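Researcher: Please predict.
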Amino acid sequence: MSEVSNPKDKFADVPVRVRSWGYIVLVLAIAFVPQMTSWLFVCWLTFQGMREFVKMFVPNFSLALPFAIVIGLLQLILLTYCSYSGYLFWATLLCLGIGLFFRLGRKTATGAAMGMTFGAAACLLAFSQLAFIRAVEIDQNEWMGLRLVAYIIVLTELNDVFQYLMGKFFGKRKIVPRISPNKTVAGCVGGIGLTIMLSNILGYLLLPFGDFICFSLLGLLFGTLGFCGDVLFSFLKRRAGVKDTGTLIPGHGGLLDRIDSLVFNAPVFYGLICLIEITNL
């Protein structure tokens, strides 16, 4: 007689996963309280992220640790001494240089070199936007940046939780089966719907601008972009032939597995903040 699987088994990991997301939100929130700490924390994100990308795409690279340390230190130098436009210029050159180093210097396969170029862009250009958001001052309120960071981090991470839970409870039809078989239409749509509701709550409490329509549109935008970031990293992991980006969080993968949804959300949110400041809305 074949053993009948317990339908409750698919929910066995829910409490642990939700707790891990909660810890991530808490750590990120605390790390950005002092502005200087936010720079150091972003540099650590860069270091750990590059380390995980190297392990994914160039696992035989013996200098992975010192390489990641150097990139993390360069991130700190750029954040400390460059204006925003200067930062974008030099960080972009560094990303291209990293790709060329692996493609030409180490004769790495084209796909792996492209993966490292994207990894550098994610770690240097995307996640760093959190530090720039933290530095924002509106109406001479030095704590406004912290409120903005709290909004985008909590919204993005809970969007992941919402999509995961909605998929677990209601998901049947797969949305991108070849890239991420566990993602479902119900998980995506239901999660984004809950994110829109959360955006209205967080927007009312934390944002210095906007109304119900604005907060709803932001929830829709960041819920969708968060999903896209998650799918993009799932695609990269499939190309690299790995299940997780690392082992930083035992049983739950690496750092990138938990913050991949910020890869689009952080830069887009900072761009919107700059646009609002310029137009004085």
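Model: The chain is about 75% helix and 0% strand.
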